Amino acid sequence: WNKFIRGEGKELGAKLNRVSQTIDMLFAENKLKTNDDKSILEDALAKIANNEAIKAKEEIKERRRKVQELTNAENLRKQKRIVHFYECFVNGIVAGDIRYGKGSKYTKSSIQIWKTFGRYLKEFCSEDKTFDDVTRQFADSFRQFLENKHFMEKTINKYVTCFRKLCNIAAEEGINKNAVSLKVWKERTVKGTEVKAEVYLTEQEIDALYAMKLFGIEEAVRDVFFLGVCSGQRVSDYASLNRSNFNKTDKGTDIICLYQTKTGSYVEVPIVDERVFEICEK
Fold first, then answer.
1. What does pLDDT average to over the chain?
2. Lowest mean pLDDT among 44-53, 141-150, 179-188, 197-206
């Protein structure tokens, strides 16, 4: 027996020793007093007898835990990826799930700015870049990237502001923990020589435009543009005018009334050019 338990029966001998020690311990702790305590002894011995099975289950459980940890780490890194976070953000503002201020929805014009910014973001930033990669040099490189596209300084500032806001929003959600990324975005002051030239049509040019013999889509575009000239509104407002937008004041003045898409403000615009009605009737 001694030869056996020192050789091929070593594992069995170790189990028997654990059985003996466990029984002695249960008696010493006064846990085995009557036949009613038999279940306690059975449970203790079952654990010893099934030690391999329990160990295997624990190993499986440990492997699953490690896999879950890796998955969680990968998910966290995925969330920290700038492009991935941007896409989630834009989808949220388009759906109305993500809002700003006191719960206001993003306007169509704001959403369009974010979408345009995203086009340049994806062109500049590879998909594996995270907020941890944002440094002063990273921010300077983004500005240089925009300058190489020959954007005006006002446009560059707009997209730099978008990137800064994106970093701040990610920080508010606990995804961006890189404090540096919140401080490196600087807007440049637009110099007088960089101010966009004001382009406008003279009265004579407007008359000539109206008198042009156009057909089809060209005629429709000209007419809608003419409404924009006469109303002084943004394209998001004048391009969607309909009969309900035309009214009269108490004094009989013809007006265009609408809620502006960008600001939500209510405006009443007097109609000073009768050709507006010709276009609307058409």
1. 88
2. 44-53
- Rounded to an integer, what distance in angstroms lies between the CA atom of residue 236 and that of residue 246? 17
Cα 162 to chain centroid, rounded: 12
Q: Pull the structure tokens for residue 156.
A: 């560059």
Residues 181 and 134: beta-carbon distance below 8 Å: yes
CB 269 within 8 A of CB 255: yes
Question: With the CA atoms of 235, 239, 240 and 245 taken in that order, what torsion angle do they form, in degrees rounded to the nearest 10?
Answer: 90
The single residue listed with the structure tokens 């609307």 is 280
pTM over 0.85: no
pLDDT tens digit string along 99-108? 888 888 898 8
Return d(Cα 145, Cα 124) in angstroms, integer.
7
Asked if residue 197 lies in contact with residue 207, where contact means CB atoms within 8 angstroms, the answer is no
| Residue burial 209-231, b: 16+ Cβ < 10 Å; e: rest | eeeeeeeeeeeeeebebbbebbb
* DSSP conformation letters of 207-222: HHHHHS---HHHHHHH
Distance of alpha carbon 134 from alpha carbon 37, whole angstroms:
65
Nearest to 118 by CA among 74, 165, 150: 165
* Average pLDDT over every residue of 163-173: 94
Beta bridge partners of 247: 255
> Are residues 98 and 87 in contact, defined by beta-carbon separation less than 8 angstroms?
no
Sign of CA dihedral 174, 176, 179, 181: negative
pLDDT tens figures, 67-98: 878 777 666 677 789 999 999 999 999 999 99
Higher pLDDT, 114 or 57: 114
The torsion angles phi and psi of 171, rounded to 5 degrees, stand at -70, -40
